[in-house]
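Renewal narrative, Specific Aim 1. Our central claim is that a sequence can be written position by position from structural information alone. The example that follows is taken directly from our test logs and has not been curated for this report. It begins with the structure tokens describing the chain, in the order in which they were read.
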């Protein structure tokens, strides 16, 4: 296969555009800011789950407090009722004695229930403190996520613009290369990690970076400038510009 030096130079330029596209797309898939965004987003989601769990726990404890308050109110109502009966002096001495005994038991029961009520209130305070802390952490993480998202979108937008301009340049250059040579290039590129053509620098192929032996180098240098040469090792198209 033959191709003028000018066409071979264009093929090398096309390879550079394709290599640029590979690098740009790799950057798009490995953006540090994107990884940071994902990490902070996961941290935010975890904190939000903890916040919801804490709020649910607080609701459950408040229901527990409501039940405790009802228990205390019931005991207080019975104590007040017994106090009125005792103050009225109505009833036999035995009944009044039993009433006093019952009031003593109710007083102890009230103290126990109020202690339980106090413990529940302390638990609510602890959960409220945890909720406040988690809420502040979530707000801080939300701000970070918003900031990282904006930066990530800016960087992706810039890279997408590079992809567009590079793709347009490629579309303009490709038709200027002989169809047979272009087809060979695309075939080699598809099986060569995106590299179909490489420059020959001295005695080294810049595609596989292997050194050409002296005999092969002598043979290649003796070929006409328009002869299309391929690397014996990697089979990529070798562009001789020296």
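The sequence written for that structure reads:
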């Amino acid at each position: 296969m033959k191709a003028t030096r000018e066409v071979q130079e264009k093929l090398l330029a096309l390879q550079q555009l394709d290599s640029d596209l590979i690098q740009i797309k790799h950057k798009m898939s490995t953006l540090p800011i994107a990884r940071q965004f994902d990490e902070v987003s996961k941290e935010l989601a975890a904190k939000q789950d903890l916040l919801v769990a804490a709020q649910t726990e607080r609701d459950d404890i408040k229901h527990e407090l409501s039940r405790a308050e009802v228990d205390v109110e019931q005991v207080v109502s019975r104590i007040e009722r017994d106090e009125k009966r005792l103050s009225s002096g109505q009833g036999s001495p035995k009944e009044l004695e039993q009433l006093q005994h019952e009031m003593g038991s109710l007083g102890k029961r009230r103290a126990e229930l109020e202690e339980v009520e106090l413990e529940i209130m302390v638990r609510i305070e602890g959960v409220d403190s945890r909720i406040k802390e988690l809420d502040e952490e979530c707000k801080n993480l939300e701000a970070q996520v918003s900031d990282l998202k904006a930066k990530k979108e800016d960087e992706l937008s810039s890279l997408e613009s590079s992809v567009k301009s590079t793709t347009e340049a490629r579309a303009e250059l490709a038709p200027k290369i002989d169809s047979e040579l272009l087809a060979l290039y695309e075939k080699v590129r598809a099986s060569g990690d995106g590299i179909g053509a490489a420059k020959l620098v001295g005695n080294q192929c810049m595609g596989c970076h292997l050194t050409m032996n002296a005999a092969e180098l002598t043979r290649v240098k003796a070929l006409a400038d328009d002869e299309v040469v391929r690397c014996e090792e990697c089979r990529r198209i070798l562009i001789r510009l020296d």
